[in-house]
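ok new one. same drill as before - structure tokens go in, u give me an amino acid for every spot. 295 of them this time. try not to just spam alanines like last time pls lmao
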């Protein structure tokens, strides 16, 4: 993409412009806090065709035109050969808007349908297959970062899924290194709410493509967690945001993991562990430039 050109042709309304500024601010803040993107990075942006990944791509393209550091973006769509999938929509959309992209065709749909009995959850196998393909393509393209469209609500929902069904105090990190130590996965929308993303995607008229695998399963545990959080937020506004904030303010000494905190040697006079400025990653310039552009 031409770094001097703003992506996409829809002219936002004043309301949409304010929402875009808010999302840019939150995205820039997450990128800065977790040092997700640095100068010289090649970022593979996974675009499924859903609202989240399309919003992610759009915001990163906007940041690319404004940031004082240079980085490359490549949009990737995995055509899983789902029946009725409109394979032309995303390539046409990318080409129309000058986005560098790669379309990868792999019939994971048939594999999932063959391996998973009817009525059972397909997400686990489908995700593993997708991840393997994404990592391979990232290596082929020389991408050192892989950007996914998970947002704040996804992270909170994952926390409760692991608590209720996995017995682990574990969520979805904004940044991680893959098990093979070959790639860094980033989630720049970690501070953005699903509701804001949905409003923005609708206003920008992104060509949304539904998933016929996980999107067609109504009894997933994640859907139940989503419904639970929606009910909580309706009764107690800001509950999801509060839970996410808690993930950033962990106190190991007040949990119960003996591998995380040395309870065995705890005694009167023991020094209390404390966070210092050195515990946090240094900031880069992406958040600063977003704030500067908005003033």
């Amino acid at each position: 993409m031409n770094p001097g050109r703003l992506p996409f042709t829809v002219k936002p309304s004043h309301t949409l412009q304010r929402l875009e500024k808010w999302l840019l601010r939150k995205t820039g803040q997450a990128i800065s806090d977790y040092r997700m993107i640095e100068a010289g990075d090649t970022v593979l942006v996974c675009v499924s065709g859903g609202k989240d990944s399309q919003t992610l791509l759009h915001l990163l393209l906007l940041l690319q035109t404004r940031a004082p550091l240079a980085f490359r973006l490549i949009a990737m769509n995995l055509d899983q050969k789902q029946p009725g999938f409109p394979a032309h929509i995303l390539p046409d959309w990318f080409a129309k808007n000058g986005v560098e992209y790669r379309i990868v065709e792999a019939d994971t749909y048939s594999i999932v349908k063959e391996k998973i009995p009817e009525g059972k959850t397909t997400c686990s196998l489908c995700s593993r297959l997708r991840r393997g393909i994404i990592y391979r393509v990232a290596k082929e393209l020389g991408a050192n970062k892989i950007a996914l469209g998970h947002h704040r609500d996804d992270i909170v929902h994952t926390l409760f899924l692991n608590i209720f069904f996995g017995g682990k105090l574990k969520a979805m990190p904004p940044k991680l290194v893959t098990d093979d130590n070959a790639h860094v996965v980033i989630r720049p929308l970690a501070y953005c709410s699903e509701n804001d993303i949905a409003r923005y995607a609708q206003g920008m008229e992104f060509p949304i493509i539904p998933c016929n695998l996980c999107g067609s399963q109504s009894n997933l545990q994640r859907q139940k967690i989503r419904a639970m959080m929606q009910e909580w937020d309706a009764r107690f506004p800001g509950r999801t945001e509060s839970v996410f904030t808690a993930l950033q303010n962990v106190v190991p000494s007040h949990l119960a993991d003996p591998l995380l905190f040395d309870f065995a040697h705890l005694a009167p006079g023991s020094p209390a562990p404390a966070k210092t400025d050195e515990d946090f990653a240094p900031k880069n310039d992406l958040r600063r430039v977003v704030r500067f552009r908005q003033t």
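The two ends are 26 Å apart (CA to CA). and btw The first helix runs from residue 14 to 33.
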